[in-house]
Amino acid sequence: MRSLLLASAFFAGLFASPAPVPYHAFCRTLWLFGLPCADVGTKLLQQIQAFSPLNGCEKCHYILVSATNESIHAHHTSSDKLHVESIEFTLHTTILTGSCRVSAQSSSLTFTSLLDDGLNYCNLHDLLTASGLNLAPGFMEMTSEWACLSYGFATC
Predict the structure, then answer these.
(1) pLDDT digits (tens, 9 = 90+) for 108-154
(2) Which end of the chain has fewer surrounding CB within 10 Å, N or C?
C-alpha cells in the first residue's frame, strides 16, 4: 500500500505540475547588501528608469512593469525586439542585521535555447553594476550554473 501511495505521488508530481521542465532560458541569483531594502529598491528602480527608452536611452531596453516596497518587476527587450525577458526582484529585510537580501530573476518570455550565452545573467548584472550596488557595503552574490543557465559564459 505504501509503495502504491509513493508511486501515485511521484506520478502526480511528474504530470500534474504546471511546468515540470523549464523551456526558457533563465537566471536566478541571490544578492546580499549591508543596506536597508528601501535604499536597494530605490537604486534598482532609478536604474531601470534610467535604462528606459522612454527616458531617451536608445541602447537601453528596460521597462518598469510594477513596483512595491517588496518587489520590482520589469521587462527587457533585445535591440532587435525579438527577445523579451521578465525581470523580478524580491526584497527581504534580514531579521538580525536589518540589511537586505534580494532574490533576482530574469527569464526569457520567448521560446529560446536554454543556453542564452548569459543574456539573462547580464540583464541582472547590468542593472546591479550601473546602479553601483555591486560596490555597496556587504555586497555578496550567490548563484551557480544550475540556478543561472550560461552564467559561466556571460560576458556583460
Answers:
(1) 887 665 566 778 899 999 999 999 999 999 999 999 888 887 778 88
(2) N
Q: Give the span between the Cα atoms of 119 and 108, in whole angstroms.
A: 9
Q: If you write DSSP's letter for every residue of 29-88 in order, what string do you get?
A: EEEEESS-HHHHHHHHHHHHHHT-GGGT-SS--EEEEEE-SSEEEEEEE-TTS--EEEEE
Distances, alpha carbon 82 to alpha carbons 53, 57, 75, in Å? 16, 19, 13
What span, in angstroms and rounded, lies between the C-alpha atoms of 116 and 118?
A: 5
Note the pLDDT of residue 23.
64
Predicted structure pTM score: 0.80
